Amino acid sequence: MHDDQLPAFRAQILGLRDSLLAQISQQRGGLHSRAEVAEAHFAHPEDSPAQVATERDLEFALNERETAELGTLDAALARIDAGRFGHCTQCGSHIAMARLQATPQAARCMDCQQAAERQHAA
Prior knowledge:
The chain has five helices and no strands. α1 packs antiparallel against α3 (49-82) and α2 (34-41) packs antiparallel against α3 (49-82). It is mostly helical. It has helices at 6-28, 34-41, 49-82, 97-102, 110-121. It has a domain at 3-87.
């Protein structure tokens, strides 16, 4: 990868990050925290305990996914700043340009990513 490509990747990652933050804000109804939104969801006495538990679990799962996605975007920006963007965080080899163009926040090459997924599935 050439250093002249980094600004485009930074812009793409920042765009993804801004889009995610806007989506989070819209889903929460503005600047409300996930906890405030969850409290509003659970404030209906007519809801069954099972429905409340399901909604609470969904809110927490969404929060975890959002936090993880923001973390991967922030980590990619940190790799750009550190001069390690485009290198696999596991084996150090170059990440294919096609992979970075499709998923600029990718931290691993395809081989290491597939190995990690197989290990996680086991």
